[in-house]
Amino acid sequence: MANNSVKIWENGSIFAALTGLTSQSKNKKTGDMLGISILPIEEKPSDSIKHKDDGPQCGTCALAASTPGPWSCYVNPIALNAVWTATIKQKVSKLVEKFLELTPTPIRLGTYGDPALLPLELLKKLVSGRKYTGYTHQWKTCSPEYSQYLMASIDHSNNKADAIKKGYRTYRILSELDTLDEDEIMCPHDSTGVQCCDCRLCSGNGVKAKNIAVRVSGPKNKVSQYGSK
């Protein structure tokens, strides 16, 4: 198998690429994990961010360029462009299970883009028999069935109760002044340094555990924008 990235789904405006098949991730927080990137079809990710057209792949995420305020997402557009270039002209592979059988590596359901934009049946295939992480900002509007695989990504605790009512566990971004709620624990990477590839706590309702909180992170210029959107 020569390809590190393979197109596994598309719907006319966005597509999903499975990455990390031949090259290990160097992400210090996650460790070695496969990844799902949800990318625009008509233009490179960096251009969709520049043109504030990233809504189709990012939905209502508060950090997206298409939402009010400055773009404050932590992703590296240049890395996304590389995945886009490698996969945009590929046909959608019907061999997702075969690719996954080649490695037991855990999987991130959203290295970029919101995985709740993908079919539930595809998510089920991707996580079958392996550790995974996943987060969605679309929890208000997508089917509650996505709570089986995805954490509800929330920015303020006043949203948390609504997400929990819909059946989600939550992943809450803390500002410098925020404190943990009683039903939360700090992200184990923040508290003990454990990498996501060795931790199952962000697997939606696939595990029974407290909700997760994390300190806002990323480049200083973007962190300083947090809360302004």
Question: Quick summary of this structure?
Answer:
By secondary structure, this protein is of the alpha/beta class. It has 8 helices and 10 strands.
Word description of this protein:
This protein has one domain (5-223). It is built from eight helices and ten strands. The protein has a five-stranded mixed beta sheet with strand order 1-2-3-4-5. Strands 6-7-8-10-9 form a five-stranded parallel beta sheet. With 229 residues, the protein is of the alpha/beta class. The chain has helices at 45-50, 55-58, 77-87, 96-101, 120-127, 160-165, 188-192, 220-223, and strands spanning 5-10, 14-19, 34-40, 107-112, 132-133, 135-136, 151-154, 170-174, 184-186, 211-215. It starts with a strand and ends in a 6-residue tail after the last helix. The chain is globular, with a radius of gyration of 17 Å.
Question: In the residues, how many domains can be counted?
Answer: 1
Largest sheet, strands/sense/barrel: 5 strands, mixed
Helix/strand order: EEEHHHHEHEEEHEEHEH
Number of helices: 8
Spans of at least 5 consecutive residues whose pLDDT stays below 50 are 219-229
Estimate the global geometry from the Cα principal axes: globular
Record the strand order, biggest sheet.
1-2-3-4-5
Which range does the strand content fall in? 15-25%
What is the CA-based Rg, rounded? 17 Å
Number of strands: 10
Distance between the termini: 43 Å
Q: Which structural class is indicated by helix and strand composition?
A: alpha/beta
How much helical structure, as a percent, in the residues? Answer: 10-25%
Mean pLDDT: 89
